Each structure stands twice: as structure tokens, then as C-alpha cells.
Predict the structure.
Amino acid sequence: MNLSLLYRGPLSSCNYDCPYCPFAKRRDSTAQLREDRAALARFVAWATANPHGDRLSVLFTPWGEGLTRSWYWAALVTLSHLPHVDRVAIQTNLAGRLTWLADADPATLALWATYHPGQVTRDRFLRACATAASHGIRLSVGMVGLPEHLAEARALREALPPETYLWINAADGYSYDAPAEADWTQIDPLFGYSVRPHASAGHECRAGETALSVIGDGTVRRCHFVQTPLGNLYDGSYRRALGPRACPKTECDCHIGYVHLKRLDLHQIFAGGVLERIPAAWPAPTAPPHPATWGVPLRPATGDAPTGRPVTGDAATARPATRGTPTPVRISARPVT
């Protein structure tokens, strides 16, 4: 069986203060960090043992920023070298050290990187992207489509190499009129999928069939947005529940959910890059791009964030909202994904 697993452990700490993220400036206690580390080690041990002989793909979707924690580096490196793992990826703000990338298998590892203006300079973020690319690591880059960040998004698109996909997530609580949607679509041709929720009730979804959500204690759910357990990863009880199924929710408004909605056919659009959010038809480099193509001099992006404290969080993406007449941006208290 080919399974895609979205893993989310207890980690939820962050010292970015993005206004669209409820985890901004949050810190985990030492005990919470130990719990997260132990849970991740258990998951990696299970994936390594692969008790059911499956082909695995793994996307880490932490509430916090995983790449400032050494145990996530180790997990990504280990999983990238397993012969039965087709892809391992993580949602990240790229603010942590990246020297560990040299130990990973670039044929398997990929990054889903989010740029947060106001939290890090564009040049610093681009240097981190260039560092990843210099190791041959596939990555997509993205932003939340807040109106005050439109100019910055255009500048980022101009600075990125053409082979790097820049995705835009519709900002939670904001309605986009036709001109605004057109502006963002010029940056991300697939923005239309994010700008409005997708009717999902009764429609078949790969979630619960070949795509699963796993939390730290091993509880398996069909996806992050349907809380009904299917069983537990570690006792194998989830396998009895696997199979084609219709979505029980009225609509799906997050990329990591609706990408699996069969009627949208996004698995074909993102073929070979579903987990890291890279479209199949997007230009792909034949070799790691030269650092000069990123518009900044290459140097390792290591150490602390501009605040001088270790970066420990990533809002990753904000949930899309409906379109309509323009309204002021309303900051939601819902978790961002």
C-alpha cells in the first residue's frame, strides 16, 4: 500500500508573532519538548520498521517550528535514506540551522517553506532558500495573501528563480474581489484553489484511504480536520478502517486537506510533489541553481532570528476564506495550517 502520512506531534512553540497565528510567541516547556521528542522518535522507529511493508510518504505539519529542534533534523535525515520512503517533507519558516541538509538524501527530502514579512528580512529568507537549493533539495515557497504584503510578494517572485514555485494562501477572514484575485493569481496561477472553500460533503477524498493524519500518541485520523479516530498507528488498528470514503464536512478550505479531494484532481496537478506543494508542470531545474539566481549572496542561514532568540515556530499557511466584496482583514483565532 502507498500511504501519505501527515504527522503532527505536541510541538507548538513559536517566537514569530505573525498576527494570523494563534501560536505566536508561544513557548513549550522542557517537559513538552521532551514529550515531542519522544513522540517523534517513536514515529520514526515505526516508519523505519515499516511493519506492514508499505511505501511511505511523510509530511510534518507541526504547529510550531520543527527545524529549530535537532530531533526533527535527525528524523528528516533518517527517513530520507529509507528505501521504502518516497518523500519526506516539512512545513517550515527556514529560520533554523540548515547544515544538517548535507546529510539528507536530496532525492527524497523536500521543504515547504513559508515567508513571513515582518518576521524576517527577504534577503535572509532567500539565503535560506538558496542554501537548501545548493544541496539539491526540492522546495516550494509561499506566503499568506494579505493585501499589505502584495508588493512584497511581487518582489519575492522577482527574486526567486523561475523554477521555484511561489504559492499564495488566501488570508483567513478576507474576501477577495475580482481585481484582488487577479493580482494574486499573477503571482500564483493556482491561487484560485485557495481563494474559496471547496464543497466537500459527500465527495470522495483520499483522506482515510491513502492519506492519513497521525498525532503524537499514534492516533490516526483521516485528516487534520476530521477528528473521528480510525485507530492507532502503533497497534495497527487503523488499517481496518482504510478505504474509499466521502468527506463528512460541508467544505474544505485548507490545501493539505483539499489537495486529496478527488473531484479537484489536484494529485495530477501536483504529481510527484503533492507533499511539498510543487506542481508537476512547474519548470524543474536540471541541477541545483547557482546562488546568484536567488538575487542574494549565498551563505548558510544559521543561528537566531533577527530578534536574537532561536526561532521556534511557523504559521505555515493561513486558511483561505470566501470571496466577495472587499472587506477589512479580520484576524481569526482559528489555528492556521
Q: What stands out?
A: The radius of gyration is 19 Å. The CA atoms of residues 50 and 84 lie 8 Å apart. The mean pLDDT is 85.
